[in-house]
Design a protein that fits this description.
Layout lengths: L4 E9 L4 E3 H5 L6 H8 L3 E3 L7 H16 L6 E7 L10 H9 L5 E5 L5 H14 L5 E9 L9 H4 L4 E10 L5 E9 L7 E3 L10 H5 L5 E3 L1 H23 L8 E4 L4 H11 L10 H4 L6 H11 L8 E8 L3 E8 L1
Parallel strand pairs: 4-5, 4-6, 11-12
Antiparallel strand pairs: 1-7, 2-3, 6-7, 8-13, 9-10, 12-13
Helix pairs in contact: 3-4, 8-9
The structure holds oxa(dethia)-CoA.
Amino acid sequence: MGTQVGILGTGSALPERVLTNADLEKIVDTTDEWIVSRTGIRERRITDANTASSDLAAAAAKKALEDAGIAAEEIGLIIVATVTPDYMFPATACLVQEKLGIKHTAGFDLSAGCSGFLYGMSTAAAMIQSGVAKYALVIGVETLSKITDYTDRNTCVLFGDGAGAVVLGPVPAGRGFVGFDLGIDGSGGELLMQAAGGSRNPATQESVLSGQHVIRMNGKEVFKFAVRVMNSATEEVLHKIGLTKEDIDFLVPHQANIRIIDYARERLGLPEDKVVVNLDRYGNMSSASIPVALDEAKRAGKFNEGDLLLMVGFGAGLTWGAAAVRW
Ligand code: UT7
């Protein structure tokens, strides 16, 4: 497999403004009781009008660089996983490169819904192994509040803003990534989408007035899909690397709904303290959920050298992914 690649540092950035369930009770027909019992979410962070994804992404990346002890100029690849880029183009990666003052680097954005960060890590690891770069920044960032309809109780209680980043680079043998499982299924594309603003339905006065630039989701169908692929992706990656669920030390799942996480945890036979959960405080931050959870757990001293971490997620596309890493 060539160079062994692993996670050298982590960082995250969350907007200061907190939107609680009590705040949402005032703007849509919902209750704290419904939101907590159906999703596990209590509050989420929301950006102000002047903050965009690249701002949070750069802040998270700076912390990851500090944590890794790698200077910005050593980065040779920046991958930003997001469905809420600052612009359709240029890529958010270019804005982050400029903000961090990195001189010689490759970079691009990657759109794989809530699985984007897992796709980003897999891509960056392969590009490091093929010699494109020695060190890479992989960032999952979302400002979902900017495309959320705060009159739609089916979606507005779920989503939040934030960014998480990792620095990837060479690690000693026996450490780092041991396997990935990635998949897509476009037949479910319409279950979760932003319908206008692209080439199918360009932005028009009418598209804006009819609310086509916001997230629309069939929650029930996405829920069924999520439960299924959390299980199959986990099994698939374990099978690929010749390990079993008993070998998992920590599960770092996508943070969409505590009921989805609990299904996965029960099937894997893991106790609660082996599963990293932060959705009560941040809601669903799409591609930022896993890296923020990873960063918080790492900084809390949860992981020990040699632990097997399994990160698993699913999202719009539909997409899914799982990554196994030896800490
Ligand atoms: O990152 C990937 C993206 N998304 C997901 O992973 C989401 C996956 N899906 C889910 O997490 C769940 O399906 C939801 C949390 C979105 C919804 O939970 P549910 O248990 O599937 O509820 P439901 O959609 O079946 O709705 C049940 C009832 C409905 O009322 P009726 O039709 O039974 O009278 C909804 O209108 O709950 C109602 N409802 C609400 N009530 C109060 C929906 N949203 C709310 C709300 N407050 N915020």
